[in-house]
Amino acid sequence: MTCPAAPEHQPVYLGGPRFQIDPVELYREMRRDHGAVAPVVLDGDVPAWLVLGYRELHQVTSDPVLFSRDSELWNQWDRVPADWPLLPMIGRRQPSILYTVGERHRERAGVISDALEAVDPFELKGHAERFADELIDQLCGKGSCDIVGEYAMLLPLRVLARLYGFSDAQGPGLVAAMNDMINGREGALEGQRHLAESMIALLSAKLAEPGPDVVSRMLANRAGFTVEEVAQDLMVMMAAGHQPTADWIGNSLRLMLTDDRFAASLAGGRHSVGEAMNEVLWEDTPTQNVAGRWASRDTHLGAQRIGRGDLVLLGIAAANADPHVRTDAGALTGGNNAFFSFGHGDHRCPFPAQEVAEVIARTGIEVLLDRLPDVDLAVHADDLARRPSPWLRGLTALPVTYTPTPALGATR
């Protein structure tokens, strides 16, 4: 792939502290210097393109033939070492739904959607409320805690583990493994290995003894897909369902604790919880950048010439903030769902999966505000730090204080 030669237009490293400190300004600078599509480099000086424009991102995700999900098209594989930490995020020859195309992809998406759609919404909400209460029971008497590390990072996985058929005891190990894999740093490949081994063991158990869970339903209705393919799809579902949902909870609570518009919710009201969650999907979306698409032939996108086999990354956060479509930010964030936070096109997050994530996130926020109504930040808002990942945007911690209260378990 080719990149502009002028020093001020050199490719941008997709990583580092600026993604923690002020990614909005970074994307603004990239748009100013490069337009709607910017050259970037990944770890190891591997080149790629980052789509910053809303219309351009719509174009890429609407044309799965020109911008394919087939990673074998990549023209940089000879530069990628076997221990490259971003391999779990990019993938090669993985038989998962992420890298299948056409009718095969639609069939796999149907298996996933059917399995998730069969989840009883009352059962889902009940699991979310029960696990949220159990987690808060461990925190409510302390008077202070880290909402991210002690609550948001645990709740989605506990609910998903129950829906899929994992035991509650496996949760902490799965959380650590997925965080390592998604962050794309040291431990990424080991995290992927742990998740894969756990999923294969679960599938083996459910083949022998099916249950009323997502995994058993996928195995019973896998439309000719192998057990390995089902395992890969479940790994994708688990990773995509856990970390973004945890960050959705954390980012929404950060907004509600730092913005006076949502103060009423902190007094026990619920009417603005949905508004805060929707605004986060526009302004502070957990899924920041997504890898990726590969150009099946030479083409042009924005003002850039994209070569055959070039890697194109989806700049979800940048596209959501594109000034060409964000002429009235207030109107967009109120009830407008035209954000890219769940993707777009054939490979967007299945609607039943979006519903599961929203129920878990909203229930988690509402239960916390009900149980700890005077919760408040324990540090200045400017001192809150973000994880270094360019892929997902979430807080490293959200320290809060509140009036200690008895655990529900102690009063029953």
> Biggest sheet, strands in spatial order?
1-2-3-9-6-4
Could you list the spans in which at least 5 consecutive residues all have pLDDT below 50? 3-7
Structural class, by secondary structure, is alpha+beta
Radius of gyration: 21 Å
What does this structure look like?
- With 412 residues, this protein is an alpha+beta fold.
- The protein is 49% helix and 10% strand.
- The protein contains 18 helices and eleven strands.
- The chain has a six-stranded mixed β-sheet.
- Strand 7 (299-301) and strand 8 form a beta hairpin.
- Helix 5 packs across helix 11 (214-220), helix 5 (102-117) runs parallel beside helix 17 (351-371) and helix 6 (121-137) packs parallel to helix 17 (351-371).
- It is globular and about 65 Å long.
- It starts with 11 loop residues before the first strand and ends with a helix.
- Residues 3-7 have low confidence and may be disordered.
In short:
The protein contains 18 helices and eleven strands.
Features:
single chain; 412 residues; alpha+beta; 6-stranded mixed beta sheet; 18 helices
Give the topology:
Layout: E1 12-13, H1 18-21, H2 23-34, E2 37-42, E3 46-51, H3 54-62, E4 67-68, H4 87-90, H5 102-117, H6 121-137, E5 144-146, H7 147-152, H8 155-164, H9 171-183, H10 188-208, H11 214-220, H12 227-258, H13 263-266, H14 273-283, E6 290-295, E7 299-301, E8 304-306, E9 311-314, H15 316-320, H16 329-335, H17 351-371, E10 376-377, E11 399-401, H18 408-411
Parallel strand pairs: 1-2, 3-9
Antiparallel strand pairs: 2-3, 4-6, 5-11, 6-9, 7-8, 10-11
Helix pairs in contact: 5-11, 5-17, 6-8, 6-17, 8-12, 9-10, 10-12, 12-14, 12-17, 14-16
